């Protein structure tokens, strides 16, 4: 539950649940409208709470439009080669 919203819901969706739902909605390609969330900075006790709430709102909204969650990425200014013994298989996958 994020503090800088006017309609907090105890037991509501977690961040991961919200992201999963919006990713799946995007995957249907049927999204035709989006009701943006309410963020009210005056309800937060600190600037950190406002930033956390805004960050969550931006992430969930962007996910609705197709932005995917990011994991750990390697620096890809030089692509790894199969002969590089110190690079694991998961590190060879580069997200473009």
Estimate the helix proportion, in percent: 25-40%
Unreliable spans are none
Describe the sheet with the most strands. Answer: none
User: SSE string, helix = H, strand = E?
Assistant: HHH
Strand content: under 5%
Structural class: mainly alpha
**Count of strand segments:** 0
> How many separate helices?
3
- Structural shape: extended
**pLDDT averaged residue by residue:** 78
Head-to-tail CA distance between termini: 33 Å
**C-alpha Rg (nearest Å):** 18 Å
Task: Give me a quick take on this structure.
This protein is mostly helical and 96 residues long. The chain has 3 helices and no strands.
Q: What does the secondary structure layout of this molecule look like, with pairings?
A:
Elements lengths: L14 H14 L18 H18 L24 H4 L4
Helix pairs in contact: 1-2
Description:
- GO terms for molecular function: arginase activity; manganese ion binding.
- One of its GO terms (cellular component) is mitochondrion.
- Belongs to the arginase family.
- InterPro entries: Ureohydrolase, Ureohydrolase_dom_sf.
- This protein has a domain of 57 residues.
- It starts with 14 loop residues before the first helix and ends with a helix.
- It is 38% helix and 0% strand.
- With 96 residues, it is mainly alpha-helical.
- The longest helix is centred in the middle third of the chain and has 18 residues.
Question: Main traits of this protein?
Answer:
96 residues, mainly alpha, 3 helices, 0% strand
């Amino acid at each position: 539950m994020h503090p800088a919203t006017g309609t907090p819901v105890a037991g509501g969706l977690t961040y991961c649940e919200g992201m999963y739902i919006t990713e799946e909605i995007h995957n249907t390609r049927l999204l035709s409208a989006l009701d943006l969330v309410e963020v009210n900075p005056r309800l937060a006790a600190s600037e950190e709470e406002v930033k956390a709430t805004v960050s969550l709102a931006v992430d969930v909204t962007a996910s609705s439009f197709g932005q995917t969650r990011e994991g750990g990425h390697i620096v890809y200014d030089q692509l790894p080669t199969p002969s590089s013994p110190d690079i694991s298989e998961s590190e060879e996958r580069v997200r473009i």
